[in-house]
């Protein structure tokens, strides 16, 4: 039975990884899809009347309205990707896994069908389809993150791996672009994505729990297909012990979570830690929100304006724009390889600090918090390097920008999810994850006015905007510094550990 359970866990892990890799974060391959949309003449009526008679070198200047329309769609979709994480996180917490996944499948399938059947004449439907695609994708990610609970001490590694797969899924739009260039229509590609919903349904009922995967996982825990077989085998011999285990499987109780050796705070802190309101109003949460929002704004602005940026740097050469767009999308695929290193770093440091905790008197919750400091600082440093490279208007340098961008982004989202599991009670994870993403989404709306500012008053010169954003990025180093100082205080005075 133990071997069967381990096989089920591995099947759940691998199929979940494939789901995140192929579907969850495809929006962020937007630059590849914009290239196809422009080839299909989407929003071309917004270009100047004479643009089709002029050379490609003038297309960027004459098609400012077209670029702004695509930027607005991406701004709306990326906003919904984050903002809807809060209500979807609540749905996941309240109605459990099966309901959340069925909603995800409905949104995702509807979106792919809409994109598959629209044309240049009905391109405005992208304002509906792209947000629906992102809502479905983020629900796939949220329901899969709990799989980390099945792997105990490797939980942070699994969480960051899944977030890396979410980042890498942006390469799907590159595949669609390459297929399009080989003669496969946009409609055929998106109809294939729609048909994949059958596979999502199969995972939902066979390889995922109806409720939540608890942490720590209780003995004899089963779910999905194993749960059905187990019911038949155990028919007629349900004991009180089995009823207890079944009850634990259905409900994720705060008491069970807080009894975990790695997660439980001291008795003196339980009232404060249990409160969702106290978590939200804490300085720790506020600075984490600033950290996430500023770094994320850089990434969204870069992805949303990449086609326009490359067109400008390449002097309107479509072949160069296509080649650099492909290079960017290819680097995105490697996010799944970069993200686990962040989780491994956090897991290794956590185990190291746990060994030292006996000597220092540090609480398990403080140990978990200290292990996040290097991850937070490294993510800020990577973003700073990415921001500086992106601000230098040299086309060949963008290869370095692409590499730093994908590493920074994979560290950002994996580190964000892992930090929330380490720094706050597990029973609030869905709500806190959703809330921090929703609030950061409001900041991400700045990308469209920034793009408009660059295209308008700044006459396509982003220098002053880039300098301002680079300076703002320096603020993100405050978060790891404050967490580090908090850890130092707790080491010196263990009784103050929060």
Unreliable runs = 51-61, 230-273
Which CATH architecture would you pick?
Up-down Bundle
Give a quick account of the main beta sheet: strands, pairing sense, barrel closure: none
Distance between the termini: 40 Å
* DSSP strand content: under 5%
CATH topology call? Growth Hormone, Chain: A
Region (Disordered): 234-271
Membrane topology: Multi-pass membrane protein
Protein name: Solute carrier family 43 member 3 isoform X1
GO molecular function: transmembrane transporter activity
Structural write-up:
The protein has a single domain (2-232, 242-496), classed as MFS general substrate transporter like domains (Growth Hormone, Chain: A, Up-down Bundle). 73% of the residues lie in helices and 0% in strands. It contains 26 helices and no strands. The chain has helices at 2-24, 30-39, 59-62, 64-83, 85-117, 126-145, 155-168, 171-181, 186-195, 197-206, 224-233, 240-250, 254-258, 270-274, 276-280, 283-304, 306-313, 318-333, 335-360, 364-370, 373-391, 398-423, 429-444, 447-455, 463-473, 478-492. Helix 4 runs antiparallel to helix 24. It starts with a helix and ends in a 6-residue tail after the last helix.
